[in-house]
Amino acid sequence: MPTRKNENKKRVQITLAKTLAERLMFLRNFTHRKVNLNARLQGKIRHLVEEVEVELGVDYKTWSTARRCPACESGIVYLKRSSRSEFYGCSRYPACKHTENKPRKG
């Protein structure tokens, strides 16, 4: 998977089990060890995200065009690939069957 350098940094909030969050906070407080934990975590999280993208068959550029599903209002519409074509579909499929045709080039 290609490395994406010079990405803009944004803060992301995720929900962790309380004990895991407490363990992570404990480790982040070891500043006297001169370990840049944030950089190490960023690398590991990037690797995990890339693994999940591959596992789900999602192109890593897809997130930049994803948007809220107009049908169910809780899913994300993103580019999907079938054996016959590419189309936009809801991430909540099969609960939400919203799809859109991909515009043809030219």
Structure description:
The chain is α+β, with helices and mostly antiparallel strands and 106 residues long. 29% of the residues lie in helices and 15% in strands. It has a 4-stranded antiparallel sheet, with no helix packed on it. A hairpin with a 4-residue loop joins strand 2 and strand 3. The model has no long low-confidence stretch (mean pLDDT 80).
Q: Measured on Cα atoms, how large is the radius of gyration?
A: 18 Å
Mean pLDDT: 80
Structural class: alpha+beta
Number of strands: 4
User: Which term fits the overall shape?
Assistant: elongated
Strand content: 15-25%
Helix content: 25-40%
| Poorly predicted spans | none
CA-to-CA gap between the ends? 29 Å
Provide the succession of SSEs. HHEEEE
Q: Major sheet: order of its strands? A: 1-2-3-4
Characterize the largest beta sheet: strand count, sense, and whether it forms a barrel.
4 strands, antiparallel
DSSP summary: helix tally: 2
